[in-house]
Amino acid sequence: MVSPQALWPGKGLWPLIIGGFTAIAGPVTTTLVVFNALLLVLSAILLQKATLLLSGKSPRWSMVIVFLSSSPFLLWGPSLLREALFWLGVALGVLALSYTSVHRYRSALLAVGLSALVLLGIRPDAGIVLMYGFVAMLIFLFGIVGHKRSLLRAVASSAVLLSLALSFPTAFEFARGGKVTGESIVVSADDLRNANTAFSGSSWCEPELSRESLATAVLSCALGNLPSTLFGPFHWEYGQEPIWYLAGVSTLHFLILCGFATYHLVISKGRRWPLLALLAVGAASMLMFSSILTNYGILIRFRAATEIMLIPLALSGALELLPRLKSSRRKLDSSETPKSV
Fold first, then answer.
1. Whole-model pTM?
2. Is the torsion defined by CA of 244, 248, 249, 251 positive or negative?
3. CA–CA–CA angle 323, 63, 233 (5° rounding)
4. Residue 2: its pLDDT value, please?
């Protein structure tokens, strides 16, 4: 009897996509690079639409600047890797939650369905976590804090959310292609720490956690690695290789997005739930990445998925802050200009 893991080996559909390109165009790497570049542009367009839905402002050149200033987008977007397609799946999930801010739930359902297909088809293990996050937040926004609230809808939505939570461990193991335990997390994190660009210093992800439950191991490893995940590499970790400086620039880019996103959340009046939902999925992704990715070289590549979720919020904040700064500067200049007698 064929096991479910044999039918879904945890590698997704990327090998089939590569095989399809090879069958049609032959072993031409340029074709796949161009295809991924177009997918990256499509992601930018989707995020532009999401920003418009969330804030009423449509970023143009600012969106281009954000993508061109991101080292992960430039390095691994137009490449032979599957990152651009994975980021497209994340952008579709962001668009789905953004549609709820204008109560367009049918469009949100379509977008989250497409997001699930792409995420699960390209990177099932990480994709199942993000898909559950997007779907759970969509149900929460529609059934519990939506504009047409009712006790029956809230109870039904709560029951569905509980069912999602209970089914997640089984779904994750199926997508991963095998049973996942606390030992799996510790071993995976330890393997990545052997590379030249690994996190330095002590880690909470110790061998003793192998005997703990999956949730305990993930949370312990994530909290221990979170400072490096958010702020690293630190100055004492830098080596001579260019990857260290790329990682530093990537972290600076990430922190700037976090700052603008936080500013937008603080000044927003009304319709905050979709913003909080996006941040919740982004926080879940960072915990997932922090628990295993103890290597800066691979971390910045995966952390770009979290940046995709932050971009609409960050640009909304930037487009609100810059006019305010210009207005304050004009008032300051006019007050300092001496009046003629």
1. 0.90
2. positive
3. 100
4. 33
